[in-house]
Design a protein that fits this description.
- By secondary structure, this protein is an alpha/beta fold.
- The chain folds into two domains: 56-282 and 380-456, Alpha-Beta Barrel (TIM Barrel); 290-378, no CATH class.
- It has helices at 75-78, 99-112, 121-131, 143-151, 160-175, 195-208, 223-237, 257-269, 301-308, 311-318, 347-354, 358-368, 382-389, 417-432, 438-443, 447-453; strands at 4-11, 20-27, 30-35, 44-47, 52-55, 57-59, 82-87, 136-139, 141-142, 180-184, 211-215, 241-243, 274-278, 283-287, 331-335, 374-378, 394-396, 469-472, 493-498, 501-505, 508-509.
- Helix 4 (143-151) crosses helix 5 (160-175), helix 5 (160-175) packs parallel to helix 6 (195-208) and helix 7 (223-237) packs parallel to helix 8 (257-269).
- It is globular, with a radius of gyration of 22 Å.
- The chain starts with a strand and ends in an 18-residue tail after the last strand.
- The mean pLDDT is 97.
- The protein binds zinc ion.
- The site of zinc ion has 6 residues, from loops.
- Zinc ion is lined by residues 90, 184, 215, 244-245, 399.
Length: 527
């Protein structure tokens, strides 16, 4: 018995093996055959001649932690061919929460009009399952979240007792399914964390068979030192390390990715299991609050906003460097919920129009929005993006929250990567520019990522694997979303199948919701 057959396509199985002509048959949530001339046996048959059939793409760096409670189809991710989003990145996760972590999450959820029904990681995982997302979800524990639960947003190392509580909470969360730990060392309170603390937490991740990911402490002037810190954490804790969205930010740092990737390759040769991921754009996106030094964030978002009202604090800030720099003409407002008209304009432009100094304008904007102003920062070089992409050990992640072109997620001008990342690598970088082959591009979105996560039976297209599948037209696939007009689905992604069910059919969101929360132990991880 077979439920669904994809007939006549070119299979790229994710492993890096050359493409070959084969039918793909599925029964229930499994792939049961990948071979020529599969018998239909009454199954639904989709003619996919001329199309590539590949494992569903895995977004190793997603911020869709709460998006499924607003848009259960996770549509911008689904339309890119993504069948698994890995959440909890850059130091922040939706669970576990208590104390300050609870207050900070609830403020964010209120903006999305979502009511929290969980505190522990296990309760969050169950809430995601109840939301019935269209695609699969898993999550790290955020290091900043962990710190907020145990020690608020204090700018100091943890006491021995606090460190033990963090280790216990991390261990319990991983027993409940978290895939590991992710730090965000430019974002307080994760940024207040020490190397010793992260190595001690990393040891828990190793014991439980998980992965440690890091938005490293500096991606500009001190890029190499920041890579070295995480290599040291990997070495000391014996934990596998994933360096998030690898890049060199700021024009004076362009080209440094050659040294940083060489240092990663040296560490790998010495036995530290460290890799990186990347998104295919020369702009980053984050919060406007990164233009404010860490000390101002001590105590949490509300304390930061109070401090920013003080002219003396502003004067001190003005005299201090911040990692992201303050190139106001390159910092563009993406989303500010009280001022939709700001979206797409630079801080320089908006401050001039308001007759304000850009730093004062930014402080006022942060106060008015309780710290929640999103920016797009044009900070990288195209040469660096290409150089990193050509590295075989670098996988692809969007670094975005799933959006949708309608409803509450459609406002502002968010970074186009939430709609374009995977098609852009396949279209622009593989087909048009030849930076990598199509087969290798698929590998970097599937089997390579799956091997980092130690996913069981996903990220590979073979009989016996879970039926997470994408069908795309290799001659057409491309991103369409731009910085000016970001809420646009890509072209060429035709069908997406999640756990055997059609989630995207002929380019349209299907009605079925077949995604699951994937848990450490049952679905992935292990030593
Ligand atoms: Zn990040």
């Amino acid at each position: 018995m077979t439920d669904l057959v994809l007939r006549g396509g070119m299979v790229i199985d994710g492993t890096g093996a050359p493409e070959r002509r084969a039918d793909v048959a599925m029964r229930g949530d499994m792939i049961v055959a990948v071979e020529r001339d599969v018998a239909a046996n009454g199954a639904t048959v989709l003619d996919v001649a001329g199309r590539v059939v590949a494992p569903g793409f895995i977004d190793i760096h997603s911020h869709s932690d709460e998006a499924m409670f607003v848009n259960d189809a996770l549509e911008s991710a689904l339309h890119m061919g993504v069948t698994l989003v890995v959440c909890g990145n850059c130091g922040g996760s939706s669970a576990p929460v208590s104390g300050l972590a609870e207050a900070e999450l609830d403020r964010e959820l209120a903006r999305l009009d979502v009511k929290r029904t969980w505190s522990s990681f296990g309760e969050y995982a169950a809430a995601v399952d109840r939301a019935k997302p269209a695609i699969n979800v898993c999550s790290f524990v955020g290091h900043g979240t962990l710190r907020s639960c145990v020690m608020g947003a204090d700018a100091r190392p943890p006491s021995a007792a606090e460190l033990e509580r963090m280790r216990a909470l991390l261990g319990r969360s991983m027993d409940e399914g978290a895939i590991g730990l992710a730090s965000g060392l430019i974002y307080p309170p994760s940024a207040f964390g020490t190397t010793d603390e992260l190595a001690a937490l990393g040891a828990v991740v190793r014991e439980k068979g998980g992965l440690y990911a890091s938005h490293i402490r500096n991606e500009s002037t001190r890029l190499l030192e920041a890579v070295a810190e995480n290599v040291e954490i990997g070495r000391r804790a014996g934990v596998r390390v994933e360096l998030s969205h690898h890049k060199a930010a700021g024009q004076s740092n362009w080209g440094k990715v050659r040294e940083s990737t060489a240092s990663i390759e040296r560490a790998r040769a010495e036995g530290v299991d460290v890799t990186a991921d990347q998104y295919p754009y020369t702009a980053s996106s984050t919060g406007l609050a990164v233009t404010i030094p860490n000390w101002v964030h001590e105590g949490g978002t509300q304390r930061m906003c109070e401090r920013l009202k003080d002219p003396a604090v502003r004067e001190r800030i003005r005299g201090e460097e911040v990692e992201t720099g303050r190139a106001w003409d390159r910092i563009v407002i993406a989303r500010a919920r009280h001022h939709v008209e700001w979206a797409g304009k630079s801080v320089a432009e908006l401050a001039t129009a308001a007759g304000r100094d850009p730093l004062d304008w930014s402080c006022d904007a942060l106060i008015e929005h309780e710290g929640a102003v999103d920016i797009v920062h044009h900070s990288m070089s195209e040469d660096d993006v290409r150089f990193v992409m050509a590295k075989r050990w670098v996988c692809i992640g969007s670094d975005s929250r799933a959006n949708a072109p309608y409803g509450p997620l459609s406002f502002g001008k968010p970074h186009p990567r939430s709609y374009g990342t995977f098609p852009r690598v396949l279209g622009r970088y593989a087909r048009e520019e030849g930076v990598l082959s199509l087969v290798d591009a698929v590998r970097k979105m599937t089997a390579l990522t799956a091997s980092r996560l130690r996913l069981r039976g996903r990220g590979i297209l073979r009989s016996g694997a879970h039926a997470d599948v994408v069908v795309f037209d290799p001659l057409v696939v491309a991103d369409v979303a731009t910085y000016e007009d970001p809420h646009r689905y890509p072209v060429g992604i035709e069908h997406v199948i999640v756990n055997g069910g059609l989630a995207l059919a002929s380019g349209e969101t299907a009605r079925g919701r077949h995604g699951r929360f994937l848990r450490l132990g049952a679905d992935l991880g292990g030593r």
